[in-house]
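Model the whole thing, not chain by chain.
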Amino acid sequence: MLIKLRQSSECTESDVTPESIYLARRTFMGAAAAGMALSSLPAWAQSAAGERYADVEPGKAPDWLAERIAATKWNAVTVKDEAITPFQDATHYNNFYEFGTDKSDPAANAGSLKTEPWSVVIDGEVGKPGRYALEDFLKPYQLEERIYRLRCVEAWSMVIPWIGFPISALLNKVEPTSAAKYIRFETLKDPESMPGQRSNFALIDWPYVEGLRLDEAMHPLAILAVGMYGRELPNQNGAPLRLVVPWKYGFKSIKSIVRISLVSEQPKTTWQSIAAQEYGFYANVNPTVDHPRWSQARERRLPSGLFSPNVRETQMFNGYADEVASLYSNLDLRKNY
Ligand SMILES: Nc1nc2c(c(=O)[nH]1)N[C@H]1C(S)=C(S)[C@@H](COP(=O)(O)O)O[C@H]1N2
Ligand SMILES: [Mo]
């Protein structure tokens, strides 16, 4: 199936110039003006990613992944006229309950997660099931930079430059059978490295599980990500492989995936199991359907502080309505929240 993205999410590089790119260009020009050979800059700064995200700590990716990321198609999809959230906020204000429930816990605790070696299982209703080393799993796909809004159900949001590939490309390869109606994702279960799984946070029946309808997963905006800000994913953001579905609340975008299953029944997701009346299977961003305990009409865009809360109106489908609304034309979004 070939779906053409609508104009509103396509862009050219000139649409966004985040501070980091601007500053990096100045560094380059300054170096050139001073008669410095560019080759005297460190390798990271000379790379395309380093030029874009000069203020971001270089990652520690294995060589094979660093090479794949260096070959990313930059700025394939972006957000017009909205600044990219600083790397510091995107990596220190996180939800990843496997590492604790405070926003600062994932950054503090996720260092214990071992992401290499990593393997991913594909099973269920597929013609080509298997278990793949991550490097082999990624081999067939061109990585692209996708700059997306991320809207958490808790009414805060960010703009994050992800690196990944459409899940549709994977689905076309593994050949779902005619019985496959949904796709189910599972996060690593490893209490040794994930302190949140061994604490008394007994509400969650680990591992974390999420799911999509197959046609949602086939949408070109739905991606599997391996990087952000020009480098590999930091552990707290779901290394080494996570889902990103920009028109849905953030909890759908499951982190540190080890298993992808094609299934015939709608999977029971973690947040539905905890509180089905508050967190639905669809979880499409919708300013007109409030959470039972708070309004979804507005959101705090990070960075957000007491004196500059940076509040904005929440957009239908998180601003991706032109692209995705047709997936839900037969659905009562009030019932299917
Ligand atoms: N495995 C797992 N995935 C998860 C979560 C989690 O607790 N565990 N939290 C979700 C929520 S609520 C949000 S808002 C996003 C946050 O992603 P970020 O920390 O990269 O911004 O991850 C989602 N994916
Ligand atoms: Mo969230």
